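Translate sequence into C-alpha cells.
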Amino acid sequence: METIKINSQHIIKSEPIQLNIISKLIKDIRLYPNPAINEITIDFESEFDGQIEIYNTIGEKLTTQKMIANSNKVTIKLPNLTDGTYSYKIIYNNEIYNGKLTIKQE
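Result follows.
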C-alpha cells in the first residue's frame, strides 16, 4: 500500500483486485461456514502453507492472514468485519483460489 500526498492531504493507494475473475473450481479446498459470524474454517486435502486475503466490495484488501498447519484444517478469526459480502483469495500450492464470503453477525 502506498501513501501519496496531494495538496496537503494524504491519500492511500490500495492494491486493486479484479472482482469479475471467474473462480477456479475448488476441489481440494473447503471454506465454511458461509455465511460466517466471527470465524471461518478452511479444509485442505493435505498439510499446507499459504495465505488468505479478504477484500471489500470495491477491491480494497482488508486483511491478509498466513495459514500454516500440520494438519489439513485451519480456523481463521474474522473480527471487525461488518455484515456484508466480501471477496477472498486463497494462495495455496502456487495456485490462487477466488471466492465470495458473507458475514452475518448474530
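Note: The radius of gyration is 15 Å.
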